[in-house]
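Quick question, first post here. What does this chain look like in 3D?
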Amino acid sequence: MEEYPSKQVPENLDDPPNSRLFVVTSRSITEDELRESFYVFGDIQGVWVVKDKQTKESKGIAYVKFAKSSQACLAMEEMHGKVLVEGTKPVKVFIAQSRSSTRHRDVEDEELTRIFVMIPKSFSEEDLKETFKEYGDIEYCVIIKNKFTGESKGLGYVRYYKPSQAALAIENCDKAYRAILAEPRSKSTATEDYSSGGAAARNDYTGGSESMNQYAFSLGDPGNYTVIDYRHGDFTRCLMVSTRVALNQEQIFSLFDIIPGMEYCELQRDAYGMNKGHALIRYSNLGSALYAREKLNGFEYPPGNRLAVNFVDDGEDRGSPVGRMAMQFVAAQMMSAVWNGPSSSQVMKPGFSVVSSVSRIQTDANLPSLKKLAPPDSKTKERLFVVFSPSPLPPDVLEDVFCRFGSLIEVHLVPGRKVGYMKYADKQCADEAMAALHGRVVNGVKMKVMLADPPREESHKRPRTY
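> Answer (accepted):
Ran it through. Tokens below.
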């Protein structure tokens, strides 16, 4: 076999962002076979096959780290669904979960194809397209304009057809454009006109949230919200944070990223690059913005420095009946017990109608529609092992989430521990559930979803009952 030079593995495996692949493959595939299959796409910095700690056997999952995100994206595009070794199943290739994206991303993920750029206000959409077309085929370009004056805000989006093209643009374009990946508000709004919206781009910052622990605040009980008329037009998904003490980008990001749904975070600087003491935050939904404003306005960070958090106009029309209904719906969700509360509770504050059972699930994952459970006597073809943080979700909520991928037989939570098992009658359904839900947040609980170890046939312990 051809020799591959060993590379020094970077300390931060997500540097640059989206440069690491998550590969679901056959358990017989080795690291050398993976390296041989993927090295043609670029500089490989590491290959790891996930193995059982006790048996040392492969779990059928591997990671491949490239030096550039464009190389990883190209490898994903070309290798997804391919057979690496004759007689083995086709591999599934995703961009691995990182801190900035709490899930694996696939070839069809729009978040990997759309970039957000800062441009001269004199740029037309044709100028924007002409500037970025050298990196790949462009599906569309949009310049963000002031809703009232129609003038350019000096911001724009470029949507490519392939993730590797967007990655090449970010890597190779003039740094003055400050190109980053742009994350849509939701999959359903991916192709809408963004001319009236704010910048829904989320930077990939590496600052961790551990430093925030000493200043941790209680998220509290959502039921403690005061009754507010959420139909008022002053409430938006954008927040402006003011601070007397100079905080850096990572500190602001870590503080507001505690609340799920943050899309955009940028510290405001003057022409000389100096911190202005302000930061702009944008969430994917009104509920998260309301929650952030409620909990962080007046919060002292660091001690003695009281933050001021206020809503700012995000350019959206909230005066329409649909907009008012949407805000009422989100507000009702925030005030219900979906955030770590009893899943069966549908108690609402006065003035709000009962929300359907679907609304009890709040997650950053893209869930398919509900599917029926497999018959209880079905043979188990695959089991998933799930670790919950900070605490397990109720069984009925887990059943609601994991059954959507099909063939779920049952959910089992291990008493007294923050772990559980999901039994599937079809291995492909289990793989899809693992890929979609690993690292995702459901009702404020983060889940690690992995393949469970197969039950040992030769054991002195009593057999598993789940």
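The radius of gyration is 23 Å.
The chain has a mean pLDDT of 75.
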